From TrEMBL:
InterPro entries from the UniProt entry: cNMP-bd_dom, cNMP-bd_dom_sf, RmlC-like_jellyroll
Protein name, UniProt field: Crp/Fnr family transcriptional regulator
Highest taxon listed in the record's lineage: Bacteria
Classification via CDD domains: CAP_ED
Ranges of residues in domain Cyclic nucleotide-binding: 10-128
Pfam hit, one: cNMP_binding
Amino acid sequence: MAPRQITKLIEETIEKMELQEHIRFTQEEKIYFEENFEPFHLKKGHYLITKDELVEHFYYLEEGILNICFPDAKGGFVNARFMDDRAFINPFFLHNPEHKACYSIKANTNCKVWRMKKHKAYEMFGESFNFCKLAIFHLEKSLMHRIEREEGIHCMTADQRYEKVLNKEKWLFKHVPLKEIARYIGITPQALSKARKKIFR
């Protein structure tokens, strides 16, 4: 049986995460994906999840850019992470059936997203060792991203933070306003402008 659309996308993502030696979904698991994931389109500027909302789905981003952001003490928000094509959004929250978002997820571009009802994902979480491994690997990756980001904020200069994003997440500059990138790396737009001038002069 040839892989269908969502199964093929998930397999591509496993390869992108370099987990193909650790995770190989069975035919039954693939059928479960096909039967329980549904696609939809999210327009630029619209929210996938809003703060304090009860999270009802497990999401997979096929294409586009999503911004995970948290409110700050000044009434604004902090850009914690940007997700691009072929990404799982929230598998490690599935253990908590009453999980309410303390964050918002906003579309920076038009996006194509897949969703599975949380109770269906929760069933798979309890029955599939492969799905459990995926959630654990995703959590580890997210924690490493957070640690590296906080190390950058506390230990790097504005120039160093900018260079790091330019090297590791260059795709952001094509789709995300510079003021949001500045917020993401924890510097002012003015400091970002100075860093850009130093590098490109």
